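A common beginner's mistake is to predict each chain separately and then try to dock the pieces by hand. The better habit, illustrated here, is to supply every component at once so that their relative placement is modeled jointly.
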Amino acid sequence: MQKLLVSIAIAATLGLGASAAYAGTLDDVKAKGFIQCGVNTGLPGFGNPDSTGKYTGFDVDYCRAISAAVFGDPDKVKYSPLDGTERFPALQSGEIDVLVRNTTWTMSRDTTLGFTFAGVNYYDGEGFMVRKSLGVKTVKELAGATICVQGGTDTVTGLADYFKKHDLKYTPLVIDKLADVNAAYDAGRCDALTTDRSGLAANRLQMKVPDDHMVLDEIISQEPLGPVVRNNDVQWFQIVKWVHNALLDAEFLGVTQANVDDMKSSPDAAIDRLLGVGDNDFGKSIGLSKDWAYNVIKQVGNYSDIYERNIGPKTPLGLQRGVNAQWNQGGIQYGIPIL
Amino acid sequence: MAVTDAGRLNVSRDRWYNNPLVRSIFFQVLLVAAVLGSVAWLAHNTTTNLRDRGIASGFGFLNQRAGFDMVTFLNVTAESTYGYMLLAGLVDTIVVSILAIVIATILGLIVGVARLSSNWLIRTIATVYVEVLRNIPPLLVILFFYLAVLATLPDVKNAIQIGPDFSLSNRGLFMPAPVFGATFHFVVIAFVVSLIIAWAVRRWAYARRMATGQGFPSGWAGLAIVVAITGVIYLLSGDPLTFDVPVKTRFNIIGGWDLSPEFTALFVALGVYTASFIAEIVRSGIVAVSHGQTEAARALGLRSSHVLRLVVMPQALRVIIPPLTSEYLNITKNSSLAVAIGFADLVAVGNNVLNPTGQSIEVVAIWMAFYLGLSIIISVAMNWFNARIALTER
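With all components supplied together, the output reads:
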C-alpha cells in the first residue's frame, strides 16, 4: 500500500506544513548529497534494474545526466521505482526530486497536478502488440477483442477514445502493475496488449516466446514523454530543462562522449559556450558550475549516445531514431541553443 | 453520568470552578473543540497549500466524464462520470465480498468440524488445509488461483464445451442468460404465493407435532407445492422464458452470462483463504462447549448429527460470532487485492480515477469512507445477530 502511504505523506506535508515559500530543490539536493529520481519499476531500455540491481536505461541516464550537471558525478542518484498510479503522488509529496518515467506530457498533468514538464526526451505514440497467429494487421481488426492495458495511465484513455471514434467494441482488462499486465497477456487472457510503442518493444522481449508476438504498425495517439518536476521551483526546473537541451545541442554540434575533450579546443563558439570554455559561464545562471554540460557529456554522453546505448537499433529493443532524430536529419528533436 | 450518583456533588464548594460537574463539562467541551479545531486547521492548510501549488482539489471531478472503459457489474462506459465509476467499483467490491463470505463460512464450518472428526484421514486433511492456507499471504493465494486458472484453461478457439451452450476457456465460463418475456411476472407471483402456502403447511405441521407428536414431511410437501404451482402457471402463461446463448466470434465469446477468471479467482481465493481462519474459530467454539453437554445429549439418545446441530452449535455460536465478524471485515478489506489481477473493484477503479484527475487525497478519502461504511454495516449486522443468539438470562 505504498500509494496510501504516499497519499498520507502528501496530506501530511500539505496539511501540517504552513504555506511558506518552498526551499530550493537544488540546495536540498546538494545538502543530502544525491538526487532522488522516480523511474519505471521495470521497463527494459528505459528504466530497469539489471542482474546486480543497478538501474539502467534511457530515462535512468537522464537522472544520471542531471546528477553529473549538479555534482560532476553521474552516480549520485537514488532511484524510486514507481508504477503508473504511484508516480504523481510521489512527486507531489516531495518524495522524489524529478520524475523520469515514460511520462506523457498532457495539458491536465501540466496544469492541475502542480507539475511542469521540462521537455520531450522521447516522442512516442500508443500502439498494439498481438500474437502473430491471430493474423491481425490493423487496429480496427481488433473489434470485439479483449485488450490488456495498464491502469493509471493515459493509455487507458487513448484506447477508449480510439474505439469510440471508430464505433468499435472491445473488452478492456485493466491491471495495475506492468508485470501483471504482461503475465495476463502472455497467458492468453487478452488478444492484444496496448501501451506506448517504445514500451511495447520492451514488453515483447519479456514474453515467453518473443517471436510469437508482433507490434502493429499503427499508432493511435501522440505520447510525448519527458522529465517532470514540481512547478514551485523555477531554478530546479531550469536545471532539468537545460540538461535536456544540452544533450540535444551536443549531438547537433557533434560533441560526443568520445570526443568531448578534443572539442574543448574547437574553434566553434557554440561549442565553447556549451562546454564552458574560456569566459563562458552559463552554469552560473542556473546555479551550477561553468563546466556543467561538459560533465554531462563526458560522463553520460550526448542525446545520441544515450539513445544508442539503451534503446537504439543495436540494442535488443532496436528502436530506430524516427521522429526522435535531430530536426536536420528528418526528426523533430530540436535543442534550444545555449546563447 | 456516574459521577452524579457518587454523592460527591452534595459537597458544597467555595468556588464554582471547583464544582466537578462544571469541570467535567468544561474539559469535554475543550476536547471536542480541540479535535474539531485540529481537523479544520488540517483541512484549511491542505486546501491552501494545494491551491498555492496549483494542484486541483475538491470533489467537483466526480461529475466529470471519466473517459476510460472498465468491465464492472454496473454498466459503465467512457461516458460515465468518475462518481458513477467509483460507485460501480463499490458494487463490485460488495458482490465479490458477499460471495467470498458465503464460501468462507460454509467451507470454514465444514473444515472446522472436520478438524474435530474422529476419523484420522478427515482430521488430517482439515489440519493440513488450515496450516497451509493460513500461512500464505492472501495476495499469493489470489495470484495462484488466477494464474493457475489461466494456465490450465484453453484459449477461446479450443474452449471446452459443456453441453451445447456452456463453454469454459481462459476468457471465463460462458453460459446462456435468461431473457424474461412479457408475462414472466405471473410466474414470479405464482412462485411467491406457493412459498407462502408451503410456509403455512409447515406451520400447521409444527403445531400438529407439538399437539399430537405425529410427524409430517413438511419439507417435501412444500417443495412439491412450490414446483407444482409455479410449473403450472409457467406453462399457462405461455413459456415466457428464453435464453440468450453466447456466440463465439473471431476473438471472444459474446453474449450470455459469463464468470470472468478475475472475478472467479478473487472470490474463490478469498473464500478458501479466509475459510482456514474461520475453521479455527469454529473449532475453538465447539471445543469451548462443555463436554458434559455432549454427553448429556448422547444420554438422551440423540444422533450425533443432532447433537452437533441442536446442542453443540447453538452454544458454540456465542463464542464463534464475535471473531467471525473480524474475518468478514478482513474479506471485505482483502478484496482490494483485486488490483493485482485486473478485477475492477473500488481500489482498481479509484487508481484509474486518480491518474487523470490527480486528486489523490480526495480519492483516498473516498476509499476510506466507503470501506469504513461497509465495515460498519457488517459490524452492525453481526452485532445484531450476536445479540439475537446470545444466552437469554432469566
